[in-house]
Amino acid sequence: MNVICHNCKTRLNIPDYKIPEDKDTTFKCPKCKEKVHIPAVKQQKPFDEKKRQVFHGSSDEQLNALVCIESDDLKKKVYSLVKQMGLNTEAVTNTKAALKRLEYHIDHLVIIDDAFDQNKGVSGIIDRMNTIDMSLRRRICLVWLSNKFNTNDNMAALHSSVNYIIHLEDSSHLEAFLSRALMEHKNFYTVFSDSLKLAGKA
């Protein structure tokens, strides 16, 4: 696995066999000696109906995904993977098509990358997400595949108005990271919605 030290930004190539699949691990950067955290990346099996209910509460709700990726090879990989996860998946080629799709559909998972639509797509889609009704926005897990930030960089995700960031070099573990992103998104907003109900605001 390719890992980037959050402190000195050194890129490290850690052999997969040295990384536990079922638990988080930490090691020292050989350059700056800071601790580098690697989350568990155990591969998940394709979604079944029980997992649909875990993520979205009802097996009757149609799960949709929108893939906004420039590279044909990466787009095919992500499209195929998300389909295997059990989501109805649509891939678009430009920002206009993406925004039109978002206007008329609820996509529970939206995946974008840095290069989409000549680098304009990311800002266009994020701007759209920032203007939609919050009750709808909470239902969308926006994942950014990026070379600019480390996987699980929560501060960068918050600052960029996305739910989850995955570094492109971690694409070999994409299914595990996407599964985690969807689960964390579901869990967070379940707690959020329950809190609103207790406060009498939902």
Features of the shown structure:
globular; 7 helices; 19% strand; alpha/beta; two-stranded antiparallel ribbon; single chain; 5-stranded parallel beta sheet; Rossmann fold
Please explain how this structure is put together.
With 202 residues, the chain is α/β, with parallel strands linked by helices. The chain has 2 domains: 2-38, no CATH class; 49-198, 3-Layer(aba) Sandwich (Rossmann fold), CATH 3.40.50.2300. The protein contains 7 helices and 9 strands, in the order ββββαβαβαβααβαβα. The strands form 3 sheets. The chain has a 5-stranded parallel beta sheet with strand order 6-5-7-8-9, sandwiched between helices. It has a two-stranded antiparallel ribbon with strand order 1-2. A two-stranded antiparallel ribbon has the order 3-4.
CATH architect. name of the largest domain: 3-Layer(aba) Sandwich
Overall form: globular
Query: In the CATH hierarchy, what is the superfamily of the largest domain?
Result: Response regulator
Residue ranges: pLDDT <50 for 5 or more in a row? 42-47, 49-54
Strand order of the largest sheet: 6-5-7-8-9
What's the end-to-end separation, in Å?
43 Å
Helical/strand content category? alpha/beta
